[in-house]
Amino acid sequence: MSHPDHSATTALFFTQQIARLKQRAENAPSNKALNKLVEFLAQVEPAALNHGDLSRWTDALAALPSLQPSRTALDSARLIIGSEADLAPQTSLLTLRAQLEAFIPWRKGPFELFGIGIDTEWRCDLKWARLADAISPLEGQRVLDVGSGNGYYSYRMVGAGAAQVLAIDPHIPYVAQCLLLQRYLPDVAVDVLPITLDDFPERSGAFDTVFSMGVLYHRRSPIDHLLQLRDCLRAGGELVLETLIVEGEAGYSLTPPSAYARMKGIWFVPSVGTLEAWLAKAGFSDIRVIDESVTTPAEQRETSWMPFESLADSLDPDNPTRSIEGHPAPRRVVMVATR
Length: 339
Ligand SMILES: C[S@@+](CC[C@H](N)C(=O)[O-])C[C@H]1O[C@@H](n2cnc3c(N)ncnc32)[C@H](O)[C@@H]1O
Prior knowledge:
Blueprint: H1 7-26, H2 32-41, H3 54-62, E1 72-73, E2 79-81, H4 93-101, E3 108-109, E4 111-113, E5 116-118, E6 122-123, H5 124-131, E7 142-146, H6 152-159, E8 164-168, H7 172-184, E9 190-193, E10 207-213, H8 222-232, E11 233-245, E12 253-254, E13 269-270, H9 272-281, E14 285-294, E15 315-316, E16 319-323, E17 331-338
Helix pairs in contact: 1-2, 3-7
């Protein structure tokens, strides 16, 4: 299998990101694990690059104006890149807004790009605020963000001091948004690859911290996912795991027969006790719950940048403690664990 014959695609979605990663590995010659991993990933042929609609995203990226942000804030709730004053004379606010709208749906955020506020479906800043002070400090850490979406959290990780973040996500529209952010923040150490953990070698051990947020319930084999996450960590490194849970005894796990709160491809929604047992079984220690919360329509909702159905449409209108399928309404946990 080879990449589609589209040089811009290959450059944008893979070769260029690998080159960025190689540079980081070269700057850390003594880090054998990182160097070996980058060599390995350079050989991967991402299945995601066969996305039928790829050119829509590469064209939208190529059409973006060249702008130099005069200010950046990666440690604020609303991730800020540039201001309206940075718009070149030939770029109007309206034109840029239309170009950003080409990337709808904007699910994760919020952002402010050159004075344009992007009110995303998710107030990701709320989740970040719940976990940021409870995890081990990210200062100087090499981080892997698995299922990174558009990279909102990856950039917040750098805002919290991470030395480097590798964002991976197989969903091309989200990767395209991440590349859009990177376009205006080329010197920020976030690289993005359109791959999954299945593309990683066993026991790469290259990262100090690994995040898996909103991914576990999409995996048919959750303990294998935890083993893959452990493999990416150095000994003593920290996993930050966020996933859907249900109330119940240790050992209990919900397997929704069809959709769960309108989400498709949900395999296991465990109780906290079950999740702790899975983590222990996968070889983690120091397993701790740092947050448990019910997702509210204040945190996940339809906006003009995500004008489709959202959480409110997924809950029973007569009983918002249940999903429209009759399951418990979405509840999430954030846990940390050490390899
Ligand atoms: C619910 S979103 C979560 C995004 C973000 N981490 C967050 O917490 O808001 C799950 C993301 O995981 C990605 N994903 C699904 N399976 C994956 C896998 N095996 N490896 C990496 N990413 C995966 C999806 O494409 C999607 O963008």
